Amino acid sequence: MGTDPAPASASSQTLPTTPSGGEAKGREMLWAVVAAFGTYFCMYAFRKPFAVAQFDGLHVGDWDYKVIAVASQVLGYTLSKFIGIKVLTELKPNRRAWSIIALILLAELALILLAIVPAPWNLFCLFLNGLPLGMVFGLVISFLEGRRQTEALAAILCTSFILADGFTKSVGKLLLDSGVSQFWMPAGVGILFLLPLLGFVWMLSGVKQPSKRDIVARSERVQMTSQDRKSFIIRYAGGLIPLLMMYLMVTVVRSIRSDFAPEIWGSLGVTTTPELFSFSELWVGLAVTLANGFAVLITNNYRAFRVAILICITGSGLLLAASLGQHTGHLSGFTFMVLIGIGLYLPYVATHTTLFERMLAITRDRGSLVFLMYLADAIGYLGYVAVMLARNALDPGGDFMVFFLPMCYITGGLSITCMLACQFYFSRQQQLAYARSLAL
């Protein structure tokens, strides 16, 4: 697979067992974990709190205001992902930290404008809010990729947005309950998190580059040209396409669960409280972090890749089981939301932490985790905007579970099929690479 060293030998490469860093290395990794987790956790304070407001009675023509609000922010976020495919893969490392700060400040300014500009014209402010935020994840993950500990670091990073999703909504709900208006609340939450974010970005700027042993184990991550990106997609299209299809479906349903959590809880007959959002995501984050962080213990890249595919299939199976349990009345609303969250985040986080990271390590091709993640995110969020607009056009006022539950069934079934196809492709590629190495 590729013109660089044979993937079979690269993926089976063994590393020296002697210590390489001891306590100093441990402190470096702890510093990186805290910096990345804190930075992205705080970023969610500028993105998600507005979703806890329901904007009852507000419409844009025949369209529900909140649906258009969510779509506006996600459209900006999606455009940011497409821009990031080029910008972030070509960005020099010394510009990453300052770029994060600039993007966050632009997002907060947009939230202030959201409160000042009258509705419905302020919907454009949410588009402007999503536009810079879409590139923050790529900047943060670029500090962590290409290391022997990347799965563990990335799993903890992904836990940040699972927990922050609930926690920042809880903060937003507290501000609403204390009398802050639903249009000023998002900017208020952002201001509360601005100072901690600056501290975590400062920490992030001190994270060291991957060592020589990291490069031997995982391949060097480099800036990519337009031709590099095109060549990579064409070369591995047979495995990338089903993987991207799975990620598209999971992103759509995960985003619906996140952005319309109050409506889904209401359809389940559960009264929302500030602590509900945090408590449900705490269980999801714990389960997903343990499952995906485990891959860091597997040194063989191809074996770790296969384990990640199994995690994705397991998550999709759990998604089907939870949907059936809710459909037949065997699950409480809280249990259903937790299991659905685990089922969605297992493949979602496995893609972030292991699938793309080990794919690069297997192929030893010119590429980066940021490129693959932004390619997947751009497709995923574009699909989410399309689904939400279609849903509002066809059934704008219906019970949300009537829409959400079938989406869970479809995503679970098709995702399993896609991951089996992905496994078949890369298994075949490994066999061909091994045959070529024997012929030589």
From TrEMBL:
<feature type="transmembrane region" description="Helical">
    <location>
        <begin position="276"/>
        <end position="298"/>
    </location>
</feature>
<dbReference type="Pfam" id="PF18943">
    <property type="entry name" value="DUF5690"/>
</dbReference>
<feature type="transmembrane region" description="Helical">
    <location>
        <begin position="233"/>
        <end position="256"/>
    </location>
</feature>
<keyword id="KW-0472">Membrane</keyword>
<keyword id="KW-1133">Transmembrane helix</keyword>
<feature type="transmembrane region" description="Helical">
    <location>
        <begin position="330"/>
        <end position="348"/>
    </location>
</feature>
<feature type="transmembrane region" description="Helical">
    <location>
        <begin position="305"/>
        <end position="324"/>
    </location>
</feature>
<protein>
    <recommendedName>
        <fullName>Major Facilitator Superfamily protein</fullName>
    </recommendedName>
</protein>
<feature type="compositionally biased region" description="Polar residues">
    <location>
        <begin position="9"/>
        <end position="20"/>
    </location>
</feature>
<feature type="transmembrane region" description="Helical">
    <location>
        <begin position="97"/>
        <end position="117"/>
    </location>
</feature>
<dbReference type="InterPro" id="IPR036259">
    <property type="entry name" value="MFS_trans_sf"/>
</dbReference>
<feature type="transmembrane region" description="Helical">
    <location>
        <begin position="402"/>
        <end position="426"/>
    </location>
</feature>
<feature type="transmembrane region" description="Helical">
    <location>
        <begin position="369"/>
        <end position="390"/>
    </location>
</feature>
<dbReference type="InterPro" id="IPR043745">
    <property type="entry name" value="DUF5690"/>
</dbReference>
<feature type="transmembrane region" description="Helical">
    <location>
        <begin position="123"/>
        <end position="144"/>
    </location>
</feature>
<feature type="transmembrane region" description="Helical">
    <location>
        <begin position="29"/>
        <end position="47"/>
    </location>
</feature>
<feature type="transmembrane region" description="Helical">
    <location>
        <begin position="151"/>
        <end position="171"/>
    </location>
</feature>
<keyword id="KW-0812">Transmembrane</keyword>
<feature type="transmembrane region" description="Helical">
    <location>
        <begin position="183"/>
        <end position="204"/>
    </location>
</feature>
<feature type="region of interest" description="Disordered">
    <location>
        <begin position="1"/>
        <end position="23"/>
    </location>
</feature>
